[in-house]
Design a protein that fits this description.
MetI-like fold; two-stranded antiparallel sheet; 2 domains; mainly alpha
């Protein structure tokens, strides 16, 4: 296992390096640069001033030279300076990162707590009224656009009922109490949870139905084991293997892809931060943010591989270490 983990970590580092080249190149090829934005904001900036600023920021150098300079600095722990936030990149990222982690972990856990039992329940009663009802609810959750769902939650619980704040964070509103802080999380967490429950339910149902058709499940039933022991003790572990893959991929998607939800609820997370950095030509901030999303996806895949061995004893990485 140790040799396998070392190889996977090395592969992940190579992927991060390749992604840094691709992302830096794409951002660098975008029309305009930070100096152009300064010129548009201040018409008194002369051509000489613009040339001097480009020299200061290194924007007069070829793209490959600028990337190598960034890479050497990043290897030493210096990821650059954020032009939009006028502070080092890590200081700009940490608040958004903490907000996103709270949102990601809470919504993902709630989605799994709801979706996995619902998928198992539907799979054990295929084509029944309960199965049809769970499938209908899952399809409804998958089909609802995130922006529409967010706006609907705001209209119902903030505008009409007035129970919850429409958006923002507790820090921005100056809230200090535990319940007051939780109120700002309820609507965005609910939006992401509803959006995720449907897909996970469908995956769990399909995987469990396929597993329950296997010969070893028929053998377990023939031995007189109770249905709950057959489902939870024999079928669940194998049925979870494809679901674990989907969960691992969801980590990276939720980390950087919750832009619509964060925008609707004015929630300052990583998705909105990356979008603002790209639109504002903040190269350093956008690059580090996208690389963090890539790294989280790679970490999720690595954890999924470890989970495979824990779920299925037939899967062993010891042979790969030899």
């Amino acid at each position: 296992m140790s040799a396998f983990l070392v190889r996977r970590i090395m592969h992940s580092l190579i992927v991060l390096f390749v992604m840094s080249v691709v992302i830096y190149g794409l951002i660098g090829l975008m029309p305009g640069d930070p100096v152009d934005l300064m010129i548009s904001a201040d018409p008194d900036v002369t051509a000489a001033d613009a040339a001097r600023l480009r020299a200061i920021y290194g924007l007069d150098q070829p793209l490959w030279s600028r990337y190598l300079n960034w890479l050497s600095a990043a290897a030493a722990g210096d990821f650059g300076y954020s032009r939009l936030y006028a502070q080092p990149v890590w200081q700009a990222i940490l608040p958004a990162l903490s907000n996103t982690l709270v949102l990601l972990v809470t919504s993902l856990l709630l989605a799994l707590v709801i979706a996995l039992p619902a998928g198992i329940f539907a799979a054990t009663r295929p084509y029944s009224l309960a199965d049809y009802g769970i499938n209908l609810a899952a399809f409804a959750g998958i089909s609802m656009p995130p922006f529409w769902l967010g706006i609907l939650l705001i209209l119902v619980f903030s505008v009409i009922l007035g129970w919850l704040p429409a958006g923002g964070t507790a820090e921005a509103a100056g809230a200090t109490g535990t319940w007051e802080r939780l109120q700002f999380l309820i609507l965005p967490v609910a939006a992401l949870t509803i959006a995720g429950v449907g897909g996970h339910t469908r995956y769990m149902r399909a995987s469990m139905i396929e597993t329950l058709r296997q010969e070893y499940i028929r053998t377990a039933r023939a031995k007189g084991l109770s249905e709950s022991r057959v489902v939870l003790g024999h079928a669940l572990r194998n049925a979870m293997i494809p679901v674990v893959t989907v969960i691992a991929l969801d980590l990276g998607i939720l980390f950087s892809g919750a832009l619509i939800t964060e925008t609707v609820f004015a929630y300052p997370g990583m998705g909105k931060l990356i979008f603002d950095a790209i639109m504002g030509n903040d190269y350093n901030l956008a690059l580090v943010g996208l690389l963090m999303a890539t790294a989280l996806t790679l970490i999720g895949n690595l954890l999924a591989d470890v989970a495979y061995a824990a779920l299925d004893p037939r899967i062993s990485y010891e042979e790969l270490d030899a």
